[in-house]
Amino acid sequence: MLSSTLRGRTAMIMNRQMAGRLMAIRSFIPGANGAPVSFFQRESLPANTIVKFVPQQNAWIVERMGKFHRILDPGLAILMPFIDKITYVQSLKESAIEIPSQNAITSDNVSLELDGILYIKVIDPYKASYGVEDFKFAISQLAQTTMRSEIGSMTLDSVLKERQSLNNNINHVINDAARDNWGVECLRYEIRDIHPPQNVLDAMHRQVSAERSKRAEILESEGQRQAKINISEGEKQSVILASEALREQQINSAKGEAEQILLKSKATAEGIRRVADAIQNSPGGENAVQLQVAQEYIKEFGKLAKETNTVVIPQNLGDLGGLMASGMSIYKQTKANEQRQAEKV
Fold first, then answer.
1. CB count, 10 Å around CB of 116?
2. Are the beta carbons of 185 and 178 closer than 8 angstroms?
3. How does pLDDT run across 55-78, given as a tens digit for each residue?
4. Do 130 and 170 sit in the same domain of this protein?
């Protein structure tokens, strides 16, 4: 398959080169008056019939007795019989010249096959007729040599990337030679096709594949990195929010406990005040309190044997009056403590 492709491409190149040679040979075929026929000339020049009508966008060169006489503008023209002769016919329209395919070597030793299109226009019919034998052939050859020279100073990557710059350089060089000397202006030059060798194409395809794989791996790694960053940021925010919630919970718990303690202390103080008021303002309140304290003392003393096996018995257990006095001393001590606590509140 590869060999058939190469044979087809070789045949195409040979056909283009043969066509270019045939055009160059045809440009030197003599016309009816024996003068060489250029690219813009017809094979048969208009004959002198005294009265002629020059078509629009055409310029006819008239020689009188073999010497340039004048240029006929479009419209009616009167010629002298047997003396004046129309020697050249120049078209003033923009024309396209196909530049045959050629080989050029870049500065990094890569052989390229290129062809192009050249757009030209005759701006001075006199110079286009007498300044060069065949300006089409001359411009075509100049374009090919300039293209080789420009490509020889550039690398393959530069040729592929800077095609417009290459076109402008070739156009500038052609205009420097053709505008002033040949009366032809090169409007633009366009490289049509660039064909690198097959091994270079394969290497370029591998390079593109490697570049795309590299970009894919970079994007994947960037995605993984961003995902880890997002996860860590989420965990960080979660820990911060959890700590803030715990802090608020502890603050609320502390406030609740403080209010609970305050309410209990207020309730205790209020209860103590009421008991004290009842004792002081009720007849026999002191005796009743002493009696109750003594009873509670005896009751609790009787529970000592139930709570533990070890029982501490006072020495004056038989002295009930002393026991009552001990209970009353405890009552008085408790009462004094309650009074001090109430004063603080």
1. 22
2. yes
3. 898 888 888 888 888 888 888 888
4. yes
